[in-house]
Design brief:
The protein has helices spanning 15-30, 44-53, 80-88, 92-95, 101-104; strands at 4-8, 35-39, 69-72, 75-79. It is α+β, with helices and mostly antiparallel strands and 108 residues long. The protein has a four-stranded mixed sheet, sandwiched between helices. The two termini are 15 Å apart.
Length: 108
């Protein structure tokens, strides 16, 4: 089964980034979607992996992409803005590359 990975930064000084990270993680938890949280502030190799796997069109002109960044295994789903848009359109499961809510339910 595919694992949704949410790349976050635990040490972010930005309140906006912290709120966005919490919004994504909270949504996944509330909908019982299995996910793995990856803290790029603690794991340099994970941070580098994340940067390498974000498509060129999604990278800012200056600096690095900000968390949260969302992947389905190694497939890039998007950033917070993409996630928020999919939530507004009621298409989060398609955004995450999941077939339906039923496939995400677990008895945990």
């Amino acid at each position: 089964m595919a694992i949704i990975k949410v790349y976050i930064a635990s040490s972010s000084g930005s309140l906006a980034v912290k709120k966005q990270q919490q919004a994504v993680l909270g949504f996944l938890e509330a909908n019982r979607i299995p996910f793995q949280q990856v803290d790029i502030a603690m794991l340099e190799e994970q941070r580098q992996w994340m940067y390498r796997h974000i498509p060129g069109g999604k990278r800012p002109e200056k600096g690095n992409p900000l968390p949260p960044q969302i992947f389905n295994d190694e497939r890039y789903c998007g950033d917070y803005d993409d996630f928020f848009q999919s939530k507004e359109n009621n298409s989060v499961f398609a955004f995450l590359g999941l077939t339906s809510h039923a496939s995400a339910n677990t008895d945990s």
